Amino acid sequence: MSEQTSPRLYFENPVGRLLEHPDGYAIVAYNPGKRNLSDMQAFLTHASQLLRARGWRKLLGDQHQMSPFTEDERTWIQNFWVARTAQGESIYGAVVLPHDVFARLSVNLVMSEAQESALTYRLFDNETEAKGWLAQLP
């Protein structure tokens, strides 16, 4: 496949992979397993940098293999990452829910806390539906 039709790797660490999708959004794909907070912070900071560098406001959060967020991760995402990434503008996130029930609960908690922020999101059971929603956005 050509670079125009397939996502390009932007960053990778033990937490997961960040990809640039040619349709103008970031893919934030989490790996399974435990994470440490500093790796999570680096991973999501790079996601913010990707969005800013490209002028994008959309992301696909592929969390289907993800382990539950820890309390420290939830706090950091809510208190630091969402506000810093949005910088006064809306961000649209299509989140593919994890298979693990506890991970689903932790994602729901983070997302409900993020409702007060500039993050507009929808939760999906599969990537096809998530991509379809992103394609409808401006």
TrEMBL record:
Superkingdom as given in the UniProt entry: Bacteria
Protein name: STAS/SEC14 domain-containing protein
